[in-house]
């Protein structure tokens, strides 16, 4: 993706989020220079990889295959290992109309995916076989706002604003906005997106960036080079 395209998506996404009365934390609006100047006090942001995350899954066609995310909080893997403490994470995301987040599952993370407003959120689901691979025939059972829902393999759960689903690590899922763009909340287990996403197709999790203008704000995938 070109940096100019990412900057445009940042501006559009911030306006879309604000249109629902949801406001990002102050560090969202710091410039790259300000992030660098404050590096000494933001280890909590850098190590938890909080912030902007725009991906086209390395495929170069954001409108068709992509996702906007902003990680607002993310706990400590060490706390999860010891069984107490900051074991949670939260993201806000946007799926545009018919913009696919491709079929994947997680190794560690359970996640509640919440329609926070806008259009319908469509989620296609499969179960895992004993080896963790996508099972093309097994039915899927999930909880949607505490209500048990059964779906056939590849069934599509549609969430209206206010509705959510709890996805456990074995639940394969792909999702997109249906009938318009959707603001999506995610409340989950502490999460490392560099290692916890298993995609059905060989695909990247982060965008390859062509620097054609200065970044408006850093993405989490910029932290290693900009604020190491
Ligand atoms: Fe997921």
From TrEMBL:
UniProtKB keywords: Carbohydrate metabolism, Isomerase, Manganese, Metal-binding
Instruction: Provide the reaction this enzyme catalyses.
Output: D-lyxose = D-xylulose
User: What EC number(s) does this enzyme carry?
Assistant: 5.3.1.15
> Which InterPro entries does the UniProt entry name for this protein?
D-lyxose_isomer, EcSI_cupin, RmlC-like_jellyroll
A GO molecular function term, named singly, is: D-lyxose ketol-isomerase activity
UniProt cofactor(s) = Mn(2+)
Pfam families, per this entry? Lyx_isomer
Gene3D superfamilies (UniProt xref): Jelly Rolls
Broadest EC class assigned to this enzyme: isomerase
Q: Which family does it belong to?
A: Belongs to the D-lyxose ketol-isomerase family.
Q: What is this protein called?
A: D-lyxose ketol-isomerase
